[in-house]
Specification:
9 strands, Glycerophosphodiester phosphodiesterase, binds SN-glycerol-3-phosphate, binds calcium ion, eight-stranded parallel beta barrel, PLC-like_Pdiesterase_TIM-brl, 32% helix, GP_PDE_dom, alpha/beta, 270 residues, TIM Barrel
Length: 270
């Protein structure tokens, strides 16, 4: 294999440093920032009363002590749940002795709070926000997302440097809605498999960044090269094994999304 010239690959923490702390909690995102991650990934869902919260699954059953669909619950319902104790307490023996730390590891996180954390990070940290269940709400997820980005001054590019936020989705329609309302916000088209329409490395119109899953990259590195030849930046998820990190580096992808940012940064010599 020919090795690409050394270049900086952006390391993005998937649901925060989610190997070390419960996914999508403030603790996981703080840890990712401490670990030196270049960016943070999160999934957004709309609650019954219109708040964007960071929860991966349609239901809260796996990651909390509650039950039910996020879309059927209000923010106050979610705030009463424990989103951290499902993760092994042995991993961090002292976290339950400090009430503030306990809350950061167990409370549902809103997108708004994450935007505040990033604003106060003290260094540039990019955000990769994935819209979940966008068809269920027919545009309301994107509308609320763009409202928040605007409030934080993130709906337009900064005077210099890259746009600090990008929106990702498996739904081309969701990305289209984002571009229609905020044309300068970069969009990432996520792919779990290669659909026949995309075999030649052409993605839906308007998309500039491809987001293939690691399985695609491992099994079809030629497809990644096609995407690159067609001019797309490539952001790969979810890259946790050293061999996969190396393959991504060899292919010269732009970003790696990982549950273990510290280990990936070390492997990349950072
Ligand atoms: O970063 C993209 C990746 O997170 C998509 O898959 O299921 O982890 O949201 P999932
Ligand atoms: Ca995601």
């Amino acid at each position: 294999m020919t090795h690409a010239a050394p270049r900086t690959i952006q390391v993005v923490a998937h649901r925060g440093a989610s190997e070390d702390a419960p996914e999508h909690t403030l603790a996981a995102y703080r840890k990712a920032i401490e670990d030196g991650a270049d960016g943070l990934e999160c999934d957004v869902r709309l609650t019954a009363d219109g708040h964007l919260v960071l929860v991966h699954d349609r239901r809260v059953n796996r990651t909390s002590n509650g039950r039910g669909a996020v879309s059927a619950l209000e923010l106050a319902d979610l705030a009463a749940l424990d989103f951290g104790s499902w993760k092994d307490r042995e991993e961090s023996p002292d976290w339950d002795s400090d009430p503030a730390l306990l809350s950061e590891r167990t409370s549902v996180l809103t997108l708004e709070r994450l935007l505040e954390l990033v604003a106060d990070a003290g260094r540039p940290v990019e955000l990769a926000i994935e819209t979940k269940h966008p068809t269920r709400w027919a545009g309301q997820v994107e509308e609320r997302l763009l409202f928040l980005l605007k409030r934080f001054g993130l709906d337009a590019p900064p005077p210099e440097g890259p746009h600090p936020v990008r929106v990702m989705s498996f739904s081309a329609r969701s990305l289209h809605r984002v571009r229609a309302a905020a044309p300068t916000v970069p969009t990432v088209y996520l792919m779990q498999f290669i659909s026949p329409r995309m075999r030649d490395g052409r993605l839906p119109a308007g998309v500039r960044i491809a987001g293939p899953g690691m399985r695609i990259v491992r099994n079809h590195p030629g497809f990644v090269r096609k995407l690159q030849a067609a001019g797309y930046a490539v952001h790969v998820w979810t890259v946790n094994d050293a061999e996969d990190v190396q393959l991504c580096a060899d292919l010269g992808v732009e970003a790696i999304i990982t549950n273990r940012p510290r280990q990936v940064l070390s492997q990349l010599g950072r």
